[in-house]
Amino acid sequence: MTNFCPVLWPEEPTPEHFKNCSECGLNEHGSRMIWGEGNPEAPIMVVLDNPGAREDREGNPIVCGTRQTLQEAVNHVGLIKEDVYVTYILKRKPVRAYDKERTRQICMIHLKEQLQFKQPALIVCLGNIAVQSFFQNPEADVKALRGKMYRVQGFQTAVGYHPLAVRRRPNMRKLFVEDWMFVAKQYQN
Questions:
Q1: Which residue stretches of the chain are H helix?
Q2: Rounded to whole angstroms, what are the CA distances from 37 to 110, 143, 149?
Q3: Which of 91, 102, 141, 148 has the most CB atoms within 10 Å of its CB?
């Protein structure tokens, strides 16, 4: 995964009726709501735990390390940006302590609405938080679940390591690419 130039995937606007949502309390963290990015009509929906940095300190848009690593893997396995839509369990980036379990349960309501509206062909949950939330199983573990397809909440679902884990532990890059090769193979079948 070399010689790759990350790009800003277009951000999908948050639906009006959710823009000022305060139910989970993350609105008090001062971060804006991020509904998703990439192709809203994509057949592959990637679910991450929460949005990463969107802008640098001066307010200029950036591609954070998580998104860069994800884009590299997608590109490496022959998928294109039009194939992928990225969304989150939490639609706002937490910036301090919060009631994680309660907040995730509340925010899953938004994700379920997205799923019903978008009807993706394949969902890819990246990282234990996304997997545990989506599978509704606090014991779910990426290491044990990766490399297989599951039917979760009515959708074909694959599991993979979180891009940030790969950035922190470069020895996991091979496994991350394997996860995405599995996803590409499932998508192409």
A1: 65-76, 100-118, 128-135, 142-145, 163-168, 173-188
A2: 15, 26, 24
A3: 91
Task: Quote helix, strand, coil % in the chain, to nearest 5.
Answer: 40, 15, 40
In a domain, 61, yes or no: yes
The SS3 of residue 132 is: helix
Nearest in space to 2 (alpha carbons), one of 62, 81, 86, 73: 73
- Total structural domains in the chain? 1
The pTM of the full predicted model, rounded to 2 decimals, is 0.94
CA distance 148 to 186: 10
Q: Average pLDDT for consecutive 10-residue bins of the chain (189 residues)?
A: 75 91 91 92 97 78 87 95 96 93 93 95 97 96 97 97 95 97 93
- Give the relative orientation of helices 100-118 and 128-135 as an angle to the nearest 10 degrees: 70
Residue 58 domain flag: yes
Q: What's 139's DSSP letter? A: T
Q: Which residues pair with 37 in a beta bridge?
A: 11, 86
